[in-house]
Design brief:
The chain is mostly beta strands. The protein has six helices and 29 strands. The protein starts with a strand and ends with a strand. The strands form five sheets. Strands 1, 2, 3, 4, 5, 6, 7, 8, 18, 26, 27, 28 and 29 form a 13-stranded antiparallel sheet that branches. Strands 9, 10, 14, 15, 22 and 23 form a six-stranded antiparallel sheet that branches. A four-stranded antiparallel sheet has the order 13-12-24-25, covered by helices on one side. Helix content is about 10%, strand content about 40%.
Length: about 500
């Protein structure tokens, strides 16, 4: 059920706040108890290898009009979830002259909840300070086998009849959508709950004359004359994804790096469904936004995201690896043997899915092989085809580089090692701008200001392209602060 709180009117528009929960029998406040809607923050990368879940601060004053212990205190004390994830705050924003839009849906985890009580004579005044974390955290509660079953149950039947061809397959975006349904954030599975966003593809997978971007990739869950593959078979004896990952959070981190993506999260008010937006790490958007002049600007050369080394290994065989280092290898050298112990890797991950050394042969029984199909796979259609190579955009030389010479067994790992290394080996400009309104765009709405969006900024030397790494909407002060990172390397 939902408890609706009185709306908040500001110079920028109206915020409607409700609380979604299974806890019944409470009476919501009818007077304004929201003292402050603070800052909503989203960050793509807090380190070169870590993303941060979105957050939003809110301050409340307790309401004793119906419940002697207070509405909010009673609400949270009756939570059946240890992490209070059965109490979801939903904030919807209607900008002045505009239409209602998603602002923030999230949970107040116990460690982010602060209760402060003041006594003025016999009168008691309680203030509750909450830092909400985006509802996406609910997917971290599901176990890997539950997700595996969701993937298997929603794989698509093909018309394959030749041995080793995929008889059931699912798209990469389907793997992510299955997390939303397995966690019950969405009541049912829909592959369209996940979309990819990229301007020009950084990674391109190909086989002979074919070429596929990340939105056209598939994995098989069953093969003709082989049956169910172990990756997604919870009843298998070994080599299941649950044998490699203890949590969905670990799996999600490797999946995103495997395909060069940052995770965006939203809610569709029209369909009442949660959505994933898989943003390409860089060059996610082709069209640039135009901003009004900021009221404050700071400039620096970013070293927080500069790394020395990257190591990528195959999940199922860690002897198959590639690594690069700014100090210990050349820009074109990609060692495939175990690195010396003294090399420190800021980015190190495993590829759950990769390219295998086969052309029409036996891909094995694991399910870790990538396939491609230029059109969306529908039931009964021809199965996706094998992928034999990959090329990656090199930000250092601003062109694609192919990695077929690296050795067929580690083409994916070699491509990813160089992809991340050639982007993050050198300092690049970082500009932080503060704008004096929640919508500083000369054309567009606040909803357009999201992670990895692009703009052009003149730093008094030259005009360069930048993208959003962090955006903070400060409702109380009617400001937006954006951390811009330079897109290309000088």
């Amino acid at each position: 059920m939902a408890y609706s709180l009185p709306s908040i009117s500001t110079v920028n528009g109206t915020f409607a706040i409700s609380i979604q929960t299974d806890i019944a029998g409470l009476t919501a406040p009818t007077t304004q108890t929201v003292k402050s809607l603070g800052t909503r923050k989203h960050t793509a990368f807090i380190t070169p290898s870590e993303q941060e879940v979105g957050s939003c601060t809110i301050e409340l004053s307790e309401d004793y009009s119906t419940h002697s212990e207070g509405f909010y205190f009673k609400l949270f004390s009756e939570s059946a979830a240890e992490d209070q994830s059965d109490i979801e705050f939903r904030i919807i924003f209607t900008p002045t002259g505009g239409s209602e839009a998603y602002w923030f849906f999230g949970f107040a985890l116990p460690e982010n909840t602060r209760w402060e009580t003041l006594y003025i004579g016999a009168k008691r005044l309680r203030i509750i300070q909450l830092t909400l974390v985006e509802s996406i955290v609910k997917i971290f509660k599901i176990d890997v086998p539950t997700w595996m079953d969701e993937v298997s149950n929603n794989a698509i039947l093909t018309n394959a009849a030749v041995t080793y061809e995929p008889s059931y397959a699912i798209s990469i975006r389907g793997l992510f959508s299955a997390m939303l349904s397995a966690s019950a954030l969405n009541a049912s599975y829909d592959r369209d709950d996940t979309t990819f966003q990229y301007g020009t593809a950084d990674l391109i997978w190909d086989y002979n004359a074919g070429a596929f971007d990340v939105s056209q990739l598939y994995v098989a869950t069953q093969l003709v004359d082989v049956g169910e593959l172990t990756y997604f078979d919870t009843a298998a004896a070994s080599e299941r994804l649950q044998d490699y990952y203890g949590t969905i959070e670990q799996l999600l981190g490797d999946l995103l790096k495997n395909f060069g993506c940052v995770l965006g999260f939203s809610y569709d008010l029209d369909t009442s469904r949660y959505k994933f937006i898989l943003l390409q790490n860089w060059r996610a958007y082709s069209t640039a936004l135009t901003f009004n002049t900021p009221k404050k600007e700071s400039f620096s050369k970013s070293k927080a995201f500069v790394i020395d080394a990257v190591k990528v290994v195959q999940l199922t065989d860690t002897t198959k690896l590639s690594w690069v280092s700014r100090k210990y290898t050349s820009l074109t050298d990609v060692p495939t043997t175990e690195p010396p112990n003294y090399v420190q890797f800021e980015i190190s991950f495993a590829t759950p899915f990769n390219i295998m050394a086969f052309t029409g042969g036996d891909p094995g029984t694991k399910g870790n092989v990538l396939y491609g199909k230029s059109t969306e796979l529908e039931t009964g259609e021809a199965s996706p085809t094998e992928i034999g190579n990959v090329k990656a955009w090199c930000y250092w030389i601003t062109q694609y580089a192919e990695f077929s010479a690296i050795g067929s067994a580690v083409r994916m790992e070699g491509a990813l090692a160089l992809y991340y290394g050639r982007r993050l080996f050198y300092p690049f400009r970082m500009i932080t701008c503060t704008y004096g309104t929640l919508n500083p765009l000369s054309s567009g709405t606040f909803s357009d200001i999201t992670l990895n969006k692009r703009t052009s900024i003149n730093d008094d030397v030259d005009t360069r392209d930048f993208y959003i790494n962090t955006v903070k909407f400060d409702v109380e002060n009617s400001e937006v602060e954006i951390e811009w990172l330079q897109e290309n390397i000088d």
